[in-house]
Amino acid sequence: MKAADETEEDYDYKKEQMLKDKKDNLSLQNVSESLLKNAAAHEQSKELYFTLNIYKDHNLRIYKPLFLIKLALFFWFAGAIVIQAFFTVFLKQRGLTVAQVSLAIGASVVVQLLATSLSAIIADKIGRTKPVLFAHLFLTSAVCVAFVLIPPLKTADDIPQFELFGSVNQSIHKLTFESWCNKSASTTESTCKLYYATNISRIFNEAHCFTVSYIKEKITTIDRYTNEFENLTVCHYESVQEVGSDYLPTLCKGDYCELLVQECMSETGKCFYWDFRTTLLFSFYVLLITIHFFSHSCVFRFYDVTVMSLTAEHNGDFGKQRVFANIGSLVGPSLAGYVMQATTYGYDRNYSLAFVFYCVFTLLSALACWKLKVPQRKPGKSMWRKVIAFLKNPDYLAFIVVLLVLGTSFNFMVVYSNWFLEDLGASQLLLGLVMPLSSAFSIVSLFASKWFLQMFGAHKIFIIALVGYGYYNVAFSFLVEPWYSILIGIVPYTLSYNLNWVAVVEFSHDLAPEGLYASVIVMAGLIHYVFCRMTASLIGGMLMDAYGGRVAFRVMGGINLTTAILYGCFCYCRRSFKK
C-alpha cells in the first residue's frame, strides 16, 4: 500500500524492486532445482552405467542392467565358434569318415527343426525363456563331456610292420612301413612323408634327404601293399603285390636316379574294424551329434529371444549387444587354436581341448546369465489359433520368402566361398583371414544398427541385404586374384548378415502376436541357420558340380537381385494399399 508521504515515483520504484527480487528468487529456485535434478541424474547415471575413460575426455559408458547379457554373449560365442571350427576334425580323429559325419549331421536337421520348435512353444507357454535357455546350456555341456569320454572307433591292438625295398641302379635299400591296425581290419590308411636326395651316388646317404611332398599309403589286405602317389615326382614306383618282393621296380631312366624314401607316421593310421562294439559306439556318436546340434542351435535361438526381451524392456540396442558376440567369436577360436598348437607334441593333435574350451566358456556364459533379470511375459493362450491367424499375414509370408533367400545366400557363402578360393590358388593364410576380418569390420555396423533401423526400417534393410549378397556373388564370380576376396567380403558380412540379422530379430519381435514372441524369433533362426543350410548345400552343390563355381555364384547373385526387386515392389504395393 502506498504511504501518505510517499510520492508516486517512489512507490513505482519500490514495486519494481519487489517484482525484480521475486523474479530473482524464482530464478535462483529454478537454478537450484535444475542443479538438484542434474545431480540426481548424475548419481542415477553412476548407478546405471559403467564409465570407462578411453582417451582424455572420451569415455565409454556401459549400461549396467545389460552388462551381464554382454558377458554372456561374449563367452557363449567364444566357445560356440571354437566347437564349430574343430567339431568335424575331432570326429575324423575319432575314426569317423566324412560320409558317416555327413549322414549324422544330415539326420540331425530334422530333429533340430522339430525339437527346437517344441522348445519355443514351451517357452511361450510358460512365459519364460530363461529356464529353457539354461536347460539347453546344461545339455550341450553334458554332450561335450560325453564326446571327450567316449572311446574312438578305430582300434590299435597291433602294430604290424611292412618291409619294402627300394632299388636305385640295382642297389637294394630296405624301407619299413608301420601302421596302427587290428589284425582283422579290412582297410588301413596312413599318411607318409616323401623324401629324396639330389646328386645321389650308388650308395644311399641319409644325410642328403629332405621333405618335398606327401603321399598316401593304402593297404588293401594285411599282406598286400599298393603304392599310390598324390603328386608327380622324379621317380615313380610300380605297385607291389607282395610285401616280400625283393625290390620296388623303378620307372626312372638313366645312370642315376633320385632315391625315394617313405617315412610313415603310425599315429595317423585308421583301422575300420566293425563288430558289435564298433556298431554300438557309432550309434552313440550319431546320438550325441544329434543332441549336440539340437541343443547348440537352441542356445543361439534363445539367446536371441532373451537379448531382444531385455533390450525391449530397457529401450536398448540389440545390435550393440551383438558386438560382444562378434568379439567373442574372434577371441575364442584364436585362443583355443594357440593353446592346442602349444600343447601338441608329435603328429597327433589333441582336438579334445576344443571341447574343454567349449565347456568352460559355456559355464562362464551360464554364470553371467544366472544373475540376469529377464522380463517375464504372460503365458501363451490359444496359441494354435494365433499361429493360424499369423500365417495368414501377407507381411509375414513375404518375410519368410525373403528369409529363405537370405539364409540360403549366407550359408552358400560360408560353405562354398573358401572352396572356390582354393580352386583359384588361395593360400591357407588368406582362407583363414576372410571371415575374421569381415567380422571385425561388421562391428561398426552393429554399433550403428539402431540408427540404420530408425533411418531405413526393417523392410529396406532386407532389400539392402539382398542387394549386398547379390553384389558379393556376382563380384566373386569374376574374381581372378584371391586376395580381393577380403574387400568383396566386407559388404555381405557388415550389411547382408550382421545388420540384417538385427533387423530380422527386431522385425520378428514387433510382428509376433502376444504369446508367440519366442516362437516367431526361434522360427526365424531355424529357417535362416538350419533349414537354409540344407538348401544351400543342396542347391550350391548341384550348381558347383554341374556348371562350376563362377556360374554357381552368378546364379545365386541373380536370385538375390531378383528377390530384392520383387520384395521392393511388394513393400511399395502394401504401403500404397494401406494409404
Automatic annotation (TrEMBL):
InterPro entries per the UniProt record, alphabetical: MFS_assoc_dom, MFS_MFSD6, MFS_trans_sf
Pfam families assigned: MFS_1_like
Major facilitator superfamily associated domain residues: 69-555
Presence of keyword Nucleotide-binding: no
Principal subcellular localisation of the protein: membrane
GO cellular component: membrane
Record flagged with keyword Membrane: yes
TM segment ranges: 66-91, 103-123, 132-150, 282-303, 323-341, 353-374, 395-417, 429-449, 461-480, 486-504, 516-539, 551-573
Keywords, ordered alphabetically: Membrane, Transmembrane, Transmembrane helix
Subcellular location: Membrane
SUPFAM superfamilies, sorted: MFS general substrate transporter (SSF103473)
Membrane topology: Multi-pass membrane protein
Origin: domain of life: Eukaryota
Cross-referenced PANTHER family: MAJOR FACILITATOR SUPERFAMILY DOMAIN-CONTAINING PROTEIN 6-LIKE
Family the entry assigns: Belongs to the major facilitator superfamily. MFSD6 family.
Protein name, UniProt field: Major facilitator superfamily associated domain-containing protein
Organism the protein comes from: Oedothorax gibbosus
